[in-house]
Design goal:
Elements (H helix, E strand, L loop, with lengths): L4 H5 L6 H23 L6 H4 L10 H11 L1 H11 L3 H23 L11 H24 L10
Helix pairs in contact: 2-6, 2-7, 4-6, 4-7, 5-6, 6-7
Amino acid sequence: LDFDFDKVTEQSKDNPVFYVQYAHARARSVLRHAGEAFGAAAVSPQHLALVDLAPLDDADELALVRRLANWPRQVEAAAEAHEPHRIAFALYDLAAAFHGLWNRGKEDPGMRFLIAENRGLSDARLALLQAVTGVIASGLGILGVIPAEELR
């Protein structure tokens, strides 16, 4: 058994645990910023659960929604097959999809999660972020890993 301790402690996308935790921390950071910009009620789970998701019409956003919707079936399949690695792979794929969407916002201001002049779209994207953090936290919990709120 070859165990690369440097790899598992490395803070890069080459370390899958860090990569997934970074996605969680990044999404939580956006939610914190939204709370500061729009008020705490705007990012409360009660508010986000009632948000209209219709403004999410970008192909990458919809792919992320489908990935999130498939999460319960992935957990069930991993449990039935006694294959916990499926959880790890699913979380990595979810993190990659989220990071891709986040990076698009750096290049295209219309793809940012927070758009002050379009609260309906911002709310829908915040609900999407809330779902991403919930699934990542759930999956990491299954694997016995504590999700990071922020990374240094």
